[in-house]
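A reminder before we start the practical. When you read a complex entry, don't treat the lines as separate problems. The point of joint prediction is that each chain is placed relative to the others, so the output describes one connected object in space. Small molecules and nucleic acid strands, if listed, are placed in the same frame. In the example below there are four entries. Take a minute to note the order of the lines before looking further.
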Amino acid sequence: MSRSGADLALLLLGGFRSLVDDATDELAQRGYQDVRPVHDFAIRAIAAGADDATRLGQRLSVSKQAAAKTIAVLQERGYVTRDADPLDGRRKRLQVTDLGFEVLRQGEEIFDELRDQWVRRIGRAELERLEKHLATLVGGSAVRLDTPGWMTRDLGGSS
Amino acid sequence: MSRSGADLALLLLGGFRSLVDDATDELAQRGYQDVRPVHDFAIRAIAAGADDATRLGQRLSVSKQAAAKTIAVLQERGYVTRDADPLDGRRKRLQVTDLGFEVLRQGEEIFDELRDQWVRRIGRAELERLEKHLATLVGGSAVRLDTPGWMTRDLGGSS
DNA sequence: GCGGTTAGACAACCTGGTTGACTAATATCT
DNA sequence: AGATATTAGTCAACCAGGTTGTCTAACCGC
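Here is the predicted structure of the whole assembly.
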């Protein structure tokens, strides 16, 4: 048992991947075949007020062009709409559709269920302790999602 | 404070990114400018016996072609050599160079130092507890590194 | 009204993956 | 031995998701 710093990093990555892969799987089984976590995050950001491409890009720490590509996908799948802003002719105001909110809701539900599974395995107090420490270590600093590929790709044999 | 499943995922990702970004920064400062964690992992896998492109690919859960591309980079930078296998004319046997081992050593050292910093912040016992739980939850299952981009990319304002 | 800024679109390009096709060498089977 | 199958590596085409740069149209301030 090495307990090296590198192992620690791998453990964290492993934990993350485990959750995300399982969640993506489950989301697919519930009928949202091609939703990737990055879509979920993007929809969430839009719902939270990043309602145009530029702001979404800022929120996601990617260029506005990259954000626009993501938006195009979300729009095509019916998770967001894009209509002209009456107050500013340049902007295209983004709005999350009912379907979009539904994906969000299900995504949350799935993640919560996965967390519950973890609670069952190591106990509530222990998991909360783990979260508390991680929060301390990671700090409030926003987690950047600007990792091309990676969470957007389809997964092999995860679950 | 939501303590939702999604937050947990973000915490894990944040922890990982924090370590990896800092490590990459530090490695760069020590003169290994363009080493990304993925290179470290690849060298490590080669040193551990995945000494041809096919096996390296399997180890890293990527195609042999992708592995070959990585190898080309490692070779160009002098971290590995590739010579004919006297026993099997098809294979090109990989070997980690002294420089390659040096990168590995420094990488380890850096990660260990980062872990020490964490120990200082939350205490040895707590960190070990965290590691123990994560190990339980993630299981022995090999962590897949097949995330295109992401750890290979250069980092913005991390540290 | 005019110059500067801002939102979005378009295009070219990069990285790091993928699959598919092909060659050469080794293994296996009759 | 010889025919056949497998295996390692390479090449090429392609894809996803990002980047920068350029351009247009609309807004803002003087």
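Discuss with your neighbour: The helical segments of chain A are 5-29, 37-47, 53-60, 64-76, 98-122, 124-138. What might explain this?
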